[in-house]
Amino acid sequence: MVGELRYREFRVPLGPGLHAYPDELIRQRVGHDGHPEYQIRWLILRRGDDGEGDPSQVDCKAEHILLWMSDDEIYANCHKMLGEDGQVIRPSQESAEAGALDKSVLGEMETDVKSLIQRALRQLKECVDTDPPAALLHTVHVLSAYASIEPLIGVFKDPRVLDLLMHMLSSPDYQIRWSAGRMIQALSSQDAGEGQSGEEGRAGEGLGRLRESQDAVAGPSDLIRTRTQILLSLSQQEAIEKHLDFDSRCALLALFAQATLPEHPMSFEGIQLPQVPGRLLFSLVKCYLQVTFLLDQLNDSTQEQAAQNSFVPEELNAGRGRLELEFSMAMGTLISELVQAMRWDWDSSRLGRLARSSSSIFQPQPADEFSQPHGQHIRRRSKRFRPRAEFASDNTYALYVRDKLQPGMRVRMLENYEEITAGDEGVFRQGNNGMPPVQVFWESTGRTYWVHWHMVEILGFEEDIEEVFEAAEYPGPVASGAFGIAPPARRWKPITELFAMPFVVPEEENSEESEHLTQAEWWELLFFIKKLTAADRQQAVQFLQDSLGREHVLNEEILPELTMPVDLAQHLLLSLPPQLDDSALRDLFSCYVYRKYGPKGLAGHLGFPYLLGAQQGIFPFRAEASPQESDEHPSQSASPALQPLVDGLGPFGKLLVDLVQALSSEAPKENEVKACLLQLQRQPRPFLALMQSLDTPATNKALHLAVLRILMQLVNFPEALFLPWHEGMDACMVCLRSPDTDREVLQELIFFLHRLTSTSRDYAVILNQLGARDAISKALEKNLGKLELAQELRDMVFKCEKHAHLYRKLLTNILGGCIQMALGQIEDHRRTRRPIQIPFFDVFLRYLCQGSSAEMKKNRYCERVEVSSNPHQACRLTDRNPRTYWESSGSAGSHTITLHMHQDVLIRQLILLVAREDSSYMPALVVVFGGDSVNSVNTELNSVNVTPYDSRVILLENLTRFWPVIQIHIKRCQQGGIDTRIRGLEVLGPKPTFWPVFRELLCRHTRLFYMVRSQAWSQDIGEDRRSLLHLSSRLNGALRQELNFADRFLPDAEAAQALGKTCWEALVSPLVQNITSPDEDSTSPLGWLLDQFLECRDAAHNPQSRAAAFSSRVRRLTHLLVHVEPSEAAISQLKGRNRSHDWGSLATRGLPNNIMKNLTRCWRSVVEEQMNNFLTSSWKADDFVPLYCERFHDLQKSSSELFGPRAPFLLAMQNGCAGALLKLPFLRTVHVCEQFARHIDQRIQGSRMGGARGMEMLAHLQRCLESVSIFSTLEIATTFEHYYQHYMSDRLLSVGSSWLEGAVLEQIGLCFPSRFPQQMLQSLNVSEELQRQFHVYQLQQLDRELLKLEDTEKKIQVAHEDSGQQPQSEKEDAAGEPEAMAVVEEEEEEHYYEGPMPEVCVLVLFPRYWPVASVRHMLNPATCLPPHLRRALNHYTDFFSKSRSHLSLENDPQRRLQWTWEGRAEVQFGDQLLHVSTVQMWLLLYFNDLKVVSVERLRALSELPPEVLNRAIGPLTSSRGPLDLQEQKDIPGGVLKIRDDSEEPRPRRGTVWLIPPQTYLKTEDEEERELEKRRNLLNCLVVRILKAHGDEGLHIDRLVYLVLEAWQKGPCPPRGLVSSLGRGAACSSADILSCILHLLVKGTLRRHEDRPQVLIYAVPITVMEPHTESLNPGSPGPNPPLTFHTLQIRSRGVPYASCTGTQTFSTFR
């Protein structure tokens, strides 16, 4: 099973060095299906990467996860929670009973507590305006001590306790407030030991849970159980805002921060949180308290109800449905408040989309597919070089790049390769013939790296590059919710990719559901109805009553259960915006229901012409107003300084004008100002624009002074404190920090900030968080301390240091609690399959995932760097090497460095690296400018003086605006230097987001949930294999649910991929590992299922049968399991070094991720078992090969049906078939190989007949060749080659070669390790070439003889002419003429043959490749063949000898021809053309001279064995043959004579095929037994030699050489044994390597760990194989334990020498 059972408990791996194990059962509830569920605390252990360590050294309580689990899940994962009977042990009350006190003592203590409460209230009223007496403090201290006693909790449920706490918290004295906090802590300390985390349904219980005693007094305050409830009760008091001042509110917030600190140990280090004033923070706390309380109520509603009371509103104690609605509304309110507090709603460009791309979230995608933002982006491309898309293949593109690329050109990476990512740019250095051949200096890594030619795109030199704006390739669906046409895929995919998402089963569209809102959508719309005033809400309910025509009155209980039509919802969306305030309107525009149903209807509606303007203007504060709106609101009433600001506000400018007019009068009109302030609270955009105008250049002095005076007047009005001052503090800080700010403006700013912080100390806290103390100090230093109230302001800001820390901690705890509650809702959604019905839940997740698609690698924020001089050294600025530098070349003050930034990158920090040793080259004054383009860099951002001791100079920090171009000017150098040296630049881009934190938590919770579930499912499958049939539907439901969740709530592809990968790894990987692991019967559950699938495959053709349904389930399951395959990018990333761990990644140590390996191993075992059964039962069948091919084809088809056309499973199927063949005994294996060779021979010869029958034979041949291809990796390949070589030899010599021979060898050539068949075919080509040369040679000989004959005739003629002149000589010539004529006639008789000359073709067969037995050798051709044939052979022998002597080298041994009986002939017999063998031809030619020939005489003349001669006579004496065989007593074997055809009705004509059929020795014969002997002897030699070398072992080449030497020379094996093998006992390196491979498989040999080419003797195998036979047939006793087949293992391009040569191998694979 997946996971570890260590330290007596099951552990679930969560990541590298991270494990979780169940620690404690918290509580029980009734689940959604009516079965009990248990909440288990899982402790998280952190260890080293190896996961080892002492468990006592791990802080197990630091982190934990609370998880609801079913009975099955606990049974499979939490053995410690089970009793002896196997049942879950319920939470006991032993600890509560152990602390019980005596009733009499308890009664006395209760009386004391009541009197103490009464006394404390009296003493508190007496000291209203005086300092608290010591008696009061002592009374509260004693009460706190009593409150810490658990049995006394019932006494503190008196309502007077709440009044006491209210008075104490509202007291101005710090000691009384501190005592109230101590008392609240004591009340909640009863549950401190449980250490609740507050996550997943327990967010509020982490504050502490009070256990009720048995004698608790029932009353209206029975529900005070936790500190959360106490704080909630206090915060919901009507007068709480009036009673609490800054210190009281901080005290209460401190209590809550202290309470929630152990709940959510979440760190947001590095993430800049916004500044939230205490008033808004307190409101956020109240929302959070209410949510946590309702969540506790929901969790407790399914338990046994007890008498409970609370100080909270009475309507919260309704049923579960009511609680769910209240919780949903409260959670929506909390998210809305949190979004505004975090200022996430400032960015309107992050509105979520309604649909994600249809790609699977479980299939890994290339990183660049979701890293590119939608919309336009700048892309650099070449002006004159062609891109890769214009080429047909990578090879042609690589040739083009190699020819065009020159050193110094810029290139861009086109794909991910090891450490280089697609899109990286660099400078080409050089190219060579190595691998890879291209060296590029990459800017992303700061060093050179080698890649391939086809991986880079040429950008050219700088003048060849242009910048263009390109749109995203496929922008995706529009915001209206209509699904657009699906974009084309990046690459074309075959039809088999329809199984890309097998779990997404198309569902029938429900027209009724499509016409109505879902409950989640309706509740989100209901959230805004509840935001209306009472009158507007009643009007909306009445509208619904009239529209729906319901008989019953819509009340608060019926309203949530309504089925809302879409058209009615659209009407509500049209009527809601005018009635909502600015905050609610923002929420409406960002919610899902508005984006799905609102924009399309509202965009063209004439009844609300203002809405589009409001929708566009509510978010961006600097939007331009339309001309019509500007005309409608004249601005002549505004002052000239404020005129641009008023014009920029559009329709909202009138509100600002009215405010200025009301304040500018001599006596400010208080009523008008208050009216304007109320409107600004509803529409704060003008106010924020007013404050943000301070973040403008210092040249706008008049504007700054006017704005500050207006703000100064506003602070005097109490209503102004409710304006969002905190959102404009950043602009104040920019103005305060700017070195160009005018002194008068700075003084007015100090006055304003001092006035504001004196009125509300919350803003002093915010200024402290923004770093105002240092900014004020610098301003004082610059102005020589002549700033009034600046020191007082600085002191006030400094005193709020602890409050700033409190606010930050409190915001962190609330945000962490919200994240934990969100994770809890996701878990409930997974467990119950119910939709998440929380408004703005998608908004919250969208902002948590913000940055998931915008993360960039370090040093990738800058697109390129340009310098004013020496551009070839610019790369040294980013190479991260402090020893290199860029040195300028020019006049002083003209040196610049220009940074071209990536789109939307806000610089967090820009650092200049310098060195002291540069002396006068070191910069002294650096000025930084920004601009929108290179031609408009004129905005000064900062000026920095560099001291001679600096090494890291911070130029820019925390920019709030994106500058496309940043230019650094080195104005002056140290010591008056002219040129400068810069050691480097560091650019820190976007600030860290919440995405890494949320991704870690989401993936961790998801992994734990699904690994627990997979373990439970595996347990069910282990108990009953038939439940495996339901696994497909289970996985379908889980994966479809995750996909729907990602489509609905996750904003982009990367976030969805992180969830999908984690889910797949945690759920599917453990399941696959468990169902593919063998059970006690050595069969895995999945193997059993696949075996059943193969058994019922034939019956599944009937779609109505049960077998068809069964097969369908199996196919759906396998399609699902092989859905995800590792991408090439993920594999390439694993090759890189120093890769950081990614929680969303699949490649984490300790987690099962090799699904394919387990599935292929299981499929291979199933196939091997199937084929093993088939071979065992059918190996003797006559039609064995056709049956085997059919079975192989069925398995291949089944593999495609189950797993698709995936190569690993086809390979596993072939390996399974090969494994079954390897299990056969040796003699059976030899028989199988001979059957395959014979079948191929028959099909090749049968295909020659042509027609339909020939095509059928070709089809059978192709199927057989596919089955035989698996022999290539087996040691039986040599045995198969042996038989194929014999059959091929007879076939080529009998019927000749054809194109099919080469085609067959091309397909199964790898099955012949010695390549003898290929060499045989090649030797035929050599023979044909020799035959053509022989033909030319014969013609040359003929020409020579004819020329000689002509010369002889001329001599005779000359002799006749001279007869008269020399009579005496004539007589001599006459006497010599008969002798000469006799010589000429004799020569003519030798060279000429009367009648048609037969055509003789000679095939030269090399004995190394052609299996010609010695019995077929013709010992004396001169005595067997007729003279004319003998002369042809003599001529060919003479030709061959001369050709060899002419071509042979000095050291090449002379070869001779040995004539054999092999071959074929065509003999004319009457009107028949007989196709016979050479032996049959010789036999028939005897009947040209003889009528009767005895068989005995033929045997004596040919010296052939009787079986060979009888095999040749058989076809000749058959019914088609020309001879008859007559038996005679006195003549052994009978006599042969020509058959008399006179009695036949018609003469025989045509072509008759009489070549003897091919028959070979069967496997039971002596030849096969000798093969087995040879292999056993080689086994003994290998083992003996390796034993002699001990642990050092031998190199495989050396081992082969020693075995060959021992085989040839002795004394091992004994020469008697070798001689008993006969003449065919030659040994080759292929045979030795086959034995070595077999010994490695059996475990007798092993490889050296560090040097795999070295072999070592391992452990001798003593178990005898049951099929082994004795070495000698007549000798008793078994063989050596192993039998071997031969297999040649070779490297490409290595020629093979004869068996006497020494073979060397570079690899052994």
Helices, strands, pairings?
Elements: E1 4-6, E2 9-15, E3 18-30, E4 36-46, E5 64-69, H1 71-77, H2 94-98, H3 103-126, H4 134-147, H5 159-169, H6 174-187, H7 227-235, H8 240-243, H9 246-260, H10 278-300, H11 320-341, E6 376-382, H12 394-404, E7 410-413, E8 425-431, E9 438-442, E10 447-451, E11 456-460, E12 465-471, H13 511-514, H14 519-530, H15 534-548, H16 566-575, H17 582-590, H18 592-603, H19 610-617, H20 627-632, H21 643-649, H22 653-664, H23 670-682, H24 685-692, H25 701-714, H26 729-737, H27 743-759, H28 762-769, H29 772-782, H30 790-799, H31 801-832, H32 841-848, E13 862-867, E14 886-887, E15 895-901, E16 909-913, E17 923-931, E18 939-945, E19 952-957, E20 965-973, E21 981-982, E22 984-988, H33 995-1023, H34 1031-1049, H35 1053-1075, H36 1085-1095, H37 1106-1121, H38 1128-1135, H39 1155-1178, H40 1184-1203, H41 1207-1222, H42 1226-1246, H43 1251-1268, H44 1277-1295, H45 1299-1308, H46 1316-1361, H47 1367-1391, H48 1421-1424, H49 1427-1447, E23 1464-1469, E24 1472-1477, H50 1478-1485, E25 1492-1494, H51 1495-1502, H52 1506-1516, E26 1523-1526, E27 1535-1538, E28 1550-1553, ...
Parallel strand pairs: 24-28
Antiparallel strand pairs: 1-2, 2-3, 3-4, 4-5, 6-12, 7-8, 7-11, 8-9, 9-10, 13-15, 14-21, 15-20, 16-19, 16-22, 17-18, 17-20, 23-24, 25-27, 26-27, 29-31, 30-31
Helix pairs in contact: 1-33, 3-4, 3-5, 4-6, 6-9, 7-10, 9-10, 9-31, 10-11, 10-31, 16-18, 21-22, 22-23, 25-27, 27-30, 28-30, 28-31, 29-30, 33-35, 34-35, 34-37, 36-39, 39-40, 39-41, 40-41, 40-43, 42-43, 42-44, 46-49, 53-54, 53-56
